[in-house]
Design a protein that fits this description.
The complex is a heterodimer of chains A (about 500) and B (about 100). Chain A starts with a helix and ends with a helix. In chain A, strands 14-7-17-18 form a 4-stranded antiparallel β-sheet, with helices on one face. In chain A, strand 4 and strand 5 form a beta hairpin. Chain A is α+β, with helices and mostly antiparallel strands and about 500 residues long. In chain A, about 40% of the residues lie in helices and about 20% in strands. In chain A, helix 3 crosses helix 14 and helix 13 runs antiparallel to helix 14. Chain A has 16 helices and 19 strands. Chain B has one domain: Roll (Ubiquitin-like (UB roll)). Chain B contains 1 helix and 7 strands, in the order ββαβββββ. Chain B starts with a strand and ends with a strand. The chains are: A alpha+beta (about 500), B alpha+beta (about 100). At the A-B interface, helix 2, helix 12 and helix 14 of A face helix 1 of B.
Chain lengths: ~500, ~100
């Protein structure tokens, strides 16, 4: 809270100097596109003396000297050449993770590489059961994975949501009022709509429909005028007529012709990650984490902009790591470690028959869709966990790429990423099984109540003798008392606790 | 839809060639979805820019030539073409459609 304004203003200035389109909305709103944020951060890197960047390197594991981190080993994704870094400290800022078939504005880096690498190095993970689901396009095919459906709803357009059978899903008035203009709108939508998914009333693809009937009943000139205003508003951040690569004219045409479009509740953010303290340090000496890779301040439900958290944590992690490095020496990694990691890097390229990494990853994602999605229950989660364990035991050691070339071998990247995704998924699913209640974005149809007496606690995952061990940690009360008792549902909790 | 894809591994082959694949693409599929289909169902050895790809025209790194014109694989729809030719965006080929 205290460092946010300065961190945001610094980034705003970088964006200005990089000539990024951005908008400041009084009193404290800030809008810029994802690519704009990328350019702003790149500007910051260029302006700061003493920083050398190396791109397109996939880090596979960290090097350790005893308990301390002392470097990292990976390979260059284009040349395939191994890369070894010696370092006094390492900061992990690799983003979050999600194991599902449809990625919501996320790339394949959501295998949770940094989170799993830190776990293998001895760090704890927390809150891994919490994924933030938002309305995401399934059609048209060219927009699959876009959050445009969410933006249409959040903008207050008169659209409705229908289940797979075409029945309206209403949102109670009290919740509509809370949702309006609030980040809680995401969790309210999730909680209201996912009940129909639990009843099996989803579309064939596991989705719902966004219904445009109310818009289509309005006079054409009015719709066209509003659409023109939207295009002009959007061009302040994106090229005219588009939201990223989504052709808005095509969307309008389909809205008019079809009357409804299919979407699904897909994960755009993972609340959980590496356990860090207020200096962004993990429990492994020399290892720090920042941003979505860390289990930050949001816990069960992200209630504010993750960008501010990311900027503050990044800045803090950098300062803490620099301070640590100033008082440390370069250490040599434990004997044989580098060779062992490089052997792992080369394993998917070995001769012989094996399992295609792309197909194996697809199976893992399908398993997560089944039991770990926006609404969960014991049977579904158990099936997902069984498949995770089967893939880890039977498929992971057998992954072989079709091409043996080390040059830009995406199969190898998938094979190495799958080990990480399996770790994150196991932590997430086992935590979700352990949490026999609903809380935040963890909704269970078999345990709909928020049970503070048993579960007002974080679930932690750590490596113990090669196996994953789970434990719980009760929070310490500071200014706000820890809630007690229980609520019938997450929606009741939001209303009764007066969360807004 | 018939997809002609440029293939070349400079480490093992003297020159490039085109390989054809039949893909059940709908008009609103993107070129990236076509490439994903080929990699998942026809030939997983195909190299095309995929790691860290945003798939929404944001990162701009998946550029290639589609019917002779440079565009982003994730932001180019296949449309109603009967045939599509996919080539690397320039001559600095590392492998297949990936360039340095």
């Amino acid at each position: 809270m205290e460092e946010g304004p300065e961190a945001v203003y610094r980034c705003w200035q970088w964006a200005e100097r990089a000539k990024v389109k951005q908008q400041f909305i009084k009193p404290a709103g800030w809008m810029l596109s994802g690519s704009g944020m990328g350019r702003a951060l790149r500007q910051g890197l260029q302006e700061t003396p003493g920083i050398r960047t190396q791109e397109d390197i996939m880090i596979v594991d960290l090097l350790k000297s005893g308990d301390c981190v002392c470097g990292a080993v990976g390979f260059h994704v284009y040349s395939g050449e191994p890369v070894v870094f010696r370092a006094k400290t390492v900061v992990i800022a690799t983003g979050g993770w999600q194991p599902f078939s449809v990625t919501s504005t996320n790339s394949d880096v959501t295998c949770g590489d940094g989170i799993a690498i830190a776990y293998r190095a001895g760090a704890q993970l927390a809150d891994m059961e919490f994924q933030l689901f938002i309305p995401t396009a399934l059609e048209p095919e060219c927009s699959r994975g876009s959050i445009l459906p969410y933006l249409l709803i959040a903008a207050g357009l008169p659209v409705d949501v229908l289940d797979g059978e075409g029945s309206l899903i209403p949102t109670p008035k009290a919740l509509q009022k809370i949702a309006k203009g609030s980040e809680l709108g995401k969790i309210i939508a999730d909680a209201c709509w996912s009940q129909r998914l639990a009843e099996g009333k989803q579309t064939e693809n596991g989705g719902l429909y966004l219904d445009f009937s109310r818009i289509n009943r309005k006079p054409h000139f009015l719709v066209n005028t509003v659409f023109w205003l939207v295009l002009n508003q959007m061009k302040k951040l994106y090229r005219y007529g588009y939201y990223h690569s989504d052709d808005l004219k095509l969307w309008k045409k389909l809205m008019e012709e079809r009357g409804k479009l299919e979407f699904a509740l897909c994960s755009e953010y993972s609340m959980g990650g590496i356990v860090i303290d207020e200096t962004m340090a993990t429990r492994v000496p020399g290892l720090y984490a920042a941003g979505e890779a860390g289990s930050g301040v949001f816990g069960a439900c992200r209630v504010a902009d993750a960008t501010t958290e990311m900027l503050v944590q990044g800045s803090r992690a950098g300062s803490s790591a620099a301070q640590y490095a100033a008082g440390s020496e370069f250490l040599c990694g434990d004997s044989g470690q580098t060779e062992q990691i490089l052997q792992k890097v080369g394993a998917p390229l070995r001769e012989g028959d094996g399992i295609d990494p792309l197909k194996s990853l697809k199976k893992l994602r399908a398993a997560a869709d089944v039991g770990f999605g926006p609404i969960r229950n014991e049977a579904g989660l158990s099936r997902t966990l069984a498949e995770i364990r089967r893939i880890r035991g039977q498929e992971l050691p057998q992954l072989r790429t079709a091409s043996r070339s080390p040059v830009y071998n995406y199969g190898r990247m998938c094979a190495l990423g799958e080990e990480n995704l399996l770790t994150c998924a196991e932590a997430g699913v086992r935590s979700a099984l352990m949490r026999k209640e609903s809380r935040g974005f963890h909704l269970r149809s078999d345990f709909p109540a928020v049970d503070n007496s048993r579960f007002a606690a974080r679930i932690l995952a750590e490596r113990d003798g090669g196996e994953m061990k789970l434990s719980t940690r009760k929070p310490e009360a500071h200014r706000i008392p820890i809630p007690s008792g229980s609520e019938l549902t997450v929606c009741d909790y939001i209303v009764n606790q007066k969360l807004i | 839809m018939k997809i002609k894809v440029y293939r070349w591994d400079p480490a093992t082959e003297a020159k490039g060639r085109f390989e054809c694949f039949e893909v059940p693409a709908a008009p609103h599929w993107t070129v990236m979805q076509v490439l994903d289909y080929i990699a998942e169902n026809r030939d997983p050895s195909l190299a095309y820019y995929r790691h860290s790809a945003c798939c929404h025209g944001i990162c701009g790194r998946c550029a290639l030539k589609v019917n002779g014109k440079v565009g982003l694989a994730c932001a180019t729809e296949v449309g109603t073409n009967a045939e599509l030719t996919l080539e690397p965006k320039n001559g600095k080929v590392l492998r297949d459609l990936v360039t340095g």
